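Model: Ready when you are.
Researcher: Fold this.
Model:
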Amino acid sequence: VLQNLAGEWFSNVSKKQITPPERKIPQGSVIDKPIDQVQKKLNRANIEVVSVEEYDPVKAKLNLKNFASAPTNLKENSRVVLFQENGKVKYYALAEKGPAGVEDLRSKIFVQTERITEVANLQETKNAEIKGLHDEVVKLRDQLETVKIEDLRTKVNTQETQIAEVKGLQDEVARLKMQLQTSQEEQKRTIAERDREIASLQASVKEFRKVSTDLTALRKQVNLLRRGGNS
């Protein structure tokens, strides 16, 4: 018998040691706090918020009675009614318990509500992750489009520079021709040498004109692409 009593004593002590401490919410964590934050905090502590009612200063006697009878710490599995004013908890009161069957049903509903809340929070987190990924894809796509436009803009600027260079050469050729015409009699040898230079330059001009024509065609294609992009 002594051995059995000792075994039972040891079993009870072990159970007490491994039993987790009861969750409590102090009054200071509820009073004058935003109503939505309080509801979430109570749900996490397995405390059911039966209802949220507006604080009525006209019911001063009832308010004082409810406040005085409310415990300073809300224990796990409690059921409370919150009285709010301007979005904050003014005070709270313990809700009256109903028949056993109703309490059991309420407990099950409370558990299911907690599960639904957890699923909703998980879904909200996943939605936020999906939105973040979508925003990142849009950002990368915009960056790619920017790179393409900048590359095309660089090519156009390069072509415009080459066209300017060709025009500059054409102007230089015209100037040389005028100089040759004014000094033909005095510098025949120079004229002959310069004629050869002119011939070479004309060949270059012809090549540059060809390049200019190609550049003009390319510019038209670029303009068409821009119009197509804007539309």
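Researcher: Now this one.
Model:
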Amino acid sequence: MSVQGVVKSMRLILPGVAAGIMVANTAWLHSLASMLLILPRVAAGTMVANTAWLHGLASMKASDYIEIARLVLEAIGGLWVLHLYLAKRQGQGSLSITHGFRIYRPDPSSGGAYLIVSLVIQNTREVLLRDLSGRVTLLDASQRDPAAGEMVLAAFGERDPFVQFINPADPEFEPVGLEPGDLVDTEMAFALERVGLMAVRISIEGKQGETDKTVFLWNSFFYVDPPPVAKTPRWR
């Protein structure tokens, strides 16, 4: 195989990723030195079997050397981009949980109503979040323990914030995951026999990064102070 053939093969194999990202970091010089040491081993299987490359090397022009150097730099740039992509998906993750609610009363005279809770769950870090599961619990905050004098938060409703986005019966079912910047915007409805002071507790569990098996927990809690009786829904 001639040197020109090797150059053409490298052009097909190496991705056309810009090497300019390496210019600002002098560490690329060390990477280039390492690459130049590795390349002869990679090409040895082809070169040893065919001595014609020696004649081709002797007849190479300056432009051929420049072309090979450019391809090597593109390979280093591609590896650097891959490194940055993988590195950004590791580390410490964080979820932002934004909530809202409204009370809907179909018939104000009956006393029955619906509490509609809205949630925006967003991945705010440059880290992959995967295998997410969640629980939204509705609590009665209108009762107090006479002995302790503290509020008794009795749970009387529970919803899964991701249920609209998963289908366990699907053979290709995968747990919910959020790439950096991704979000889930959802709503849940709770039927109420009476309207009083309530509280909502939100718990999200999940793993972060590509391989980390540690389960992380994100929580949020807020009170629901129902607005005066009105036929039109109100947002808080």
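Researcher: Key takeaway?
Model: The helical segments are 3-13, 27-47, 52-58, 62-88.
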